[in-house]
C-alpha cells in the first residue's frame, strides 16, 4: 500500500477504510469549529461595514473597546491581513495610534504594515514617542519623506525632531527642496518654543484688500492654503501683522468692505516664546489662533488652539508627575528600565533626607530609651506635618503656574497660609493631644505632642509656600524637588520639636 | 484785624506779613510736590494712550505688571475716577478680571463702578467665583439681565448658575421672554455636562443647500448668527446633524457645490455627557467645535474648543489638588475659613491613619526599648515606601484620566510596576542596608532594614496601582482619598516589616 504525500490540511482521496475514518474525524472537527464560530458570531455584532466596526471599536466614552482590541489580536494571530486592514481602516487615525499603544511590541509589528500609507501620515504625530520610533524604523526614508510632506509643517517637524540624526538627514534628503528648507528652518528653533509649534502655512492678506479680493484669492489659490484655518491675518507693508479677520466674519460681510474696517486686534506670539507661556495666553484670552512673528515683527506662521490643548495636557502632566518625584515622562510603552530611570533618582535623594531626619532622632536616643511612647507617637507628628506641607505646596505650585500667585500678592498669600496653618494646627493639636494623652495615660505627653504639632504645621505652611516661591524667583520649576525639601523640613522639625519638647517637659 | 474765612487750599488775599509768610510756605510746598511729581514721571513711562497703558500693564509674559496694579491702587486712593476708567478701559476683559483678583476687597469695591457696562459683560465670566458674586451684588437685577443678554448662552448660564435663587429669579424676570426661556433650558441640564457648556447659537444648513445658498443665508441673517463660528452643521430632515463644513472650506469652494459633497464626518456630543469626557474627545480628535445632540439625536447646540481649554485646566487642577488632599477649589480670593474647610478634613483622616500606624509600633515597644536604633531607623523605611507609593499612584491616576490605563492593559501595568518596584527596592535596599549597617555598626541591622524596604517598596508598587484602579472600577474619582490609603499601607507595612523582622533577626 503506497501512502501519498499529503498537503497539510487538504483532505486526501479516500483509499482505505482507515483513511475514511481520518477524513470523517477531520470533517467532524471542522464542523465543530464552524459551529463554534457561528456561536461566536451570535455573541458579537456583525462587523462588516466600516460604520459597524467603528461603533463597535469605540465605547460610549470614546475609549477603545477591549473586545475590539481582541478582534485585532485574533486577526493578527490568524495572519488575516485583509481583516486587519478592514479593522484599521474604519478607525480615526487618533484611534489607530491609541490601538498601537495598547498592543504589545510583537503585535504592533504585525499590525503596522496593514495601516494604509495615507492614514499613516496622520497616525504618526499621535503616537507615543517610543512607539513612533519603532514605527519609523520599519519605513524607508523615501516613504517616510512622502508621508511627512502630507502633513502641516508643525506635525511634520514633531515627527522629524524625534529621529536619530542619520535618519533625519536621509529623510530630509528625500524631500523636495522647498519642503526641506521649511523643515530645516522649523527645526532651527528651540524645542517647546513657538517656532517649533507653529505651522508655516497661514492665510495673509494685504491691508488694502476688500472682502471680495480676499475670497477670490482664496478660491484661486485653494491648494496652497492650510487645510483648515480660522483667521485671515491682515498685514502691513513690511509683512507685519496688524489685525485679523475671523473667517466667519469675512464670510458674512459684503464683498466691497475693506479688511481694514473689519479686522480685530491680534495677540502676537514671539517666535522664541515658551510653549507654557503660549498655552497661558491662549487660555486667558480664549484665542483660536494667533500669528507668530520673528524678531523684526514679521509674520512667520501661526499657532492654532488644537495644538494648545495637547500642550496644556502635557504641561499639567509634567507638573503633577514632578510633584510626585517622577522625572521623565513615562508612557504606556515605557520599558521597566525607563520607568526605573525616571523614579529611582528621587528615591535616592529621599534616602539622604530620611537619613538626615534619622540622625536628628538619634540625638534623642536617651529620651526614647526612657520613654518608648515617644517612638510610638513621633511618626504622627511628622506625618501630619508632611501632609499639611504637601497641601500648601501643591496649592502654591498650581497658583504659580496659573499666575494667580505673583510678587504682588506673595506676602498676602504666605500670611493667609500661616493663618490657615494655625487654625488647622489648633484643631489637630486638640484631637491629637487628647488622643495621645488618653492612650498613653499622660496629660503632659498630650500637651507635648499638641505643642509639637502646632510648631510643625506652622513650619509646614511656611515651607509649603516659601519653597516654591523661592524656586520660581530663581527661574526654576517650582514643582521639581519642592516636595523633597518640604517633607525634609516637616520631618526634621516634627521629630526635633516633639523629642526636644519631651526632653524639657517630660523628663 | 479781621481774619477772613479761608476756602481750603485756596490762597487768600495777602492782608498782612503773616499771611504772606503762610502763602509763601504753601507755594513752596506745592512747588516741591510738583517737582516730586515730575520726578515720578521720569521713572515711569508716559501712560496716556490706551496702547501705552496696555503695554505697561502687561509684562512680556502677559502677566499683570505689579507696577500697573500700583497705578490703579494710587488712582483709587486719590479717588481719581477718570484715571481709573482710563486705566481699566485699556485692558482686555480677561486682564480686568485678573486685576480684580489681585486687589483687596476694599479696592475692588472702589474700582468696579469704573468698569464700562459693555466691558463688564465680558469680565463677568472670567472672574473667580467668589469675586463674581461680590461684583454681582453691586448690580441691580435689571442691569445684570442686560449685561447677560449680551453674552453667548454658555457664558450667561455660567454666570447665572452661581447666583442665589432669589437673585437668579429676579434677573431671569428682567430678561426678554426668549432669552429667559433659553436660560431656563440651559440651567435645566446638570452642571458640568454638555448641556451647560454648549452655546445654543449654531449655524445649521439643510443638506440640500449649495455653498451659494448658505453664504446668502448667512449674509441675510448675520445678526442671528453666533459672534464667532468655525463649522456649519449640515442637518437632515429630522434636524439631526449628518456632517459639518468648516467655514474655511466653504469659503474657498465654488457657489454651486452642494454641502452634501463638501461635508466632513462629525463627532457628536450627547447633551448629558460629562465635561471631562468632552475634553478627552476634543483632545483626542483635535476638534475645534462639535455639535451637541439631544436624546433623539437632534442638534441642540455646539461646544467650541476655547471652552474646552478652560475645562482641561480646571480638571487637571482638580486632579492635582485631590492628590494633595485639598478637597474644594481654592482661589486667590478664598477666605482663610474656606481654605481651612477644604484642607482640615483630610488632615483629620490622616490623624486616624497615623494613629493606626502608631498602634502598630506600640506592639513592638519591648523591641524598641532593647534597641533604640530601631526607633531611629524606622521612619526611613516608612518614608521611602511612602514616596514609592506616591510615584506609582500619581502615574496610575494620570494614566487613568488620559485613558492610557484601561482594563485591557491593567494587568500588564501592575506587573510592570511590581518589576520597577523590585529594581528600585534592590538599589535602595543596598544603599540603605550599607548606610544603616555602617552607621549603627551592625551587619544584621543592615540586613533587616534592607529586607524591610524591599517588602515595603513592593507593597507600595501594588498599592499605588491597585488602589486607583479599584476606585476607578467602582466609578469613583481615583485621585480622591487614594494618597491617604496608599501611605497608610506603606506606613503600616513599613513599621511592621522592619520591627517584626528586627524581632526575628536581631533579638
TrEMBL record, chains A, B:
The chain crosses the membrane at residues 344-364, 371-400, 420-439, 444-464, 484-506. Acts as a magnesium transporter. Belongs to the SLC41A transporter family. InterPro entries: CBS_dom (IPR000644), CBS_dom_sf (IPR046342), Mg_transptr_MgtE_intracell_dom (IPR006668), MgtE_N_sf (IPR038076), MgtE_transporter (IPR006669), SLC41_membr_dom (IPR006667), SLC41_membr_dom_sf (IPR036739). It is a multi-pass membrane protein. One of its GO terms (cellular component) is plasma membrane. The keyword Metal-binding applies. Coiled coil: none annotated. Its main location: membrane. It comes from Asticcacaulis endophyticus. It is found in: Cell membrane; Membrane. This is Magnesium transporter MgtE. GO terms for molecular function: magnesium ion transmembrane transporter activity; metal ion binding. Keywords: CBS domain, Cell membrane, Magnesium, Membrane, Metal-binding, Transmembrane, Transmembrane helix, Transport. It comes from the Bacteria. The keyword Cell membrane applies. Residues 262-320 form the CBS domain. PROSITE patterns: CBS (PS51371). Homodimer.
Amino acid at each position: 500500500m503506497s501512502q501519498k504525500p499529503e498537503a497539510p490540511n487538504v483532505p486526501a482521496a479516500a483509499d482505505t477504510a482507515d483513511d475514511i475514518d481520518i477524513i470523517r474525524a477531520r470533517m467532524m472537527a471542522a464542523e465543530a469549529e464552524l459551529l463554534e464560530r457561528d456561536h461566536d458570531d451570535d455573541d458579537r455584532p456583525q462587523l462588516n461595514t466600516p460604520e459597524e466596526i467603528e461603533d463597535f471599536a469605540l465605547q460610549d466614552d470614546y475609549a477603545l473597546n477591549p473586545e475590539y482590541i481582541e478582534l485585532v489580536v485574533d486577526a493578527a494571530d490568524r495572519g488575516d491581513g485583509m481583516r486587519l486592514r478592514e479593522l484599521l481602516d474604519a478607525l480615526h487615525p487618533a484611534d489607530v495610534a491609541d490601538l498601537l499603544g495598547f498592543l504589545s511590541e510583537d503585535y504592533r509589528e504585525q499590525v503596522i504594515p496593514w495601516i494604509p500609507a495615507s492614514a499613516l501620515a496622520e497616525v504618526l504625530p499621535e503616537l507615543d514617542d517610543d512607539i513612533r520610533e519603532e514605527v519609523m524604523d520599519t519605513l524607508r526614508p523615501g516613504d517616510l519623506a512622502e508621508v511627512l510632506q502630507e502633513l502641516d509643517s508643525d506635525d511634520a517637524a514633531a515627527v522629524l525632531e524625534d529621529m536619530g540624526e542619520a535618519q533625519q538627514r536621509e529623510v530630509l534628503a528625500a524631500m523636495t527642496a522647498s519642503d526641506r528648507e521649511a523643515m530645516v528652518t522649523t527645526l532651527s528653533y528651540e524645542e517647546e518654543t513657538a517656532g517649533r509649534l507653529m505651522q508655516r502655512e497661514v492665510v495673509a492678506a494685504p491691508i488694502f484688500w476688500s472682502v471680495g479680493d480676499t475670497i477670490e484669492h482664496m478660491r484661486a489659490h485653494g491648494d496652497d492654503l492650510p487645510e483648515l484655518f480660522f483667521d485671515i491675518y491682515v498685514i502691513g507693508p513690511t509683512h507685519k501683522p496688524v489685525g485679523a479677520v475671523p473667517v466667519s466674519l469675512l464670510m458674512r460681510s459684503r464683498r466691497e468692505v475693506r479688511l481694514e474696517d473689519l479686522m480685530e486686534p491680534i495677540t502676537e506670539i514671539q517666535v522664541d516664546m515658551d510653549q507654557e507661556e503660549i498655552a497661558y495666553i491662549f487660555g486667558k484670552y480664549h484665542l483660536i489662533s494667533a500669528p507668530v512673528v520673528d524678531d523684526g515683527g514679521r509674520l512667520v506662521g501661526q499657532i492654532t488652539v488644537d495644538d494648545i490643548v495637547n500642550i496644556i495636557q502635557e504641561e499639567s502632566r509634567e507638573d503633577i508627575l514632578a510633584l510626585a518625584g517622577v522625572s521623565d515622562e513615562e508612557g504606556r510603552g515605557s520599558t521597566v528600565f525607563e520607568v526605573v530611570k525616571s523614579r529611582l533618582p528621587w528615591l535616592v535623594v529621599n534616602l539622604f533626607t530620611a537619613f538626615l531626619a534619622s540622625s536628628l532622632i538619634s540625638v534623642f536616643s536617651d529620651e526614647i530609651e526612657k520613654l518608648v511612647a515617644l517612638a510610638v507617637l513621633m511618626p504622627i507628628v511628622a506625618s501630619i506635618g508632611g501632609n499639611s506641607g504637601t497641601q500648601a505646596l501643591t496649592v502654591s505650585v498650581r497658583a504659580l503656574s496659573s499666575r494667580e500667585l505673583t510678587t504682588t500678592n506673595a506676602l498676602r498669600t504666605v500670611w493667609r497660609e500661616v493663618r490657615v496653618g494655625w487654625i488647622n494646627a489648633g484643631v489637630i493639636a486638640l484631637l491629637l493631644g487628647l488622643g495621645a494623652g488618653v492612650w498613653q495615660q499622660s496629660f503632659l505627653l498630650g500637651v507635648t505632642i499638641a505643642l509639637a504639632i502646632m510648631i510643625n504645621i506652622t513650619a509646614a505652611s511656611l515651607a509649603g509656600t516659601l519653597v516654591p516661591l523661592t524656586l520660581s524667583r530663581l527661574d526654576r520649576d517650582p514643582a521639581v524637588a519642592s516636595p523633597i525639601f518640604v517633607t525634609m523640613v516637616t520631618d526634621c522639625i516634627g521629630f526635633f520639636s516633639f523629642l526636644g519638647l519631651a526632653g524639657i517637659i517630660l523628663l
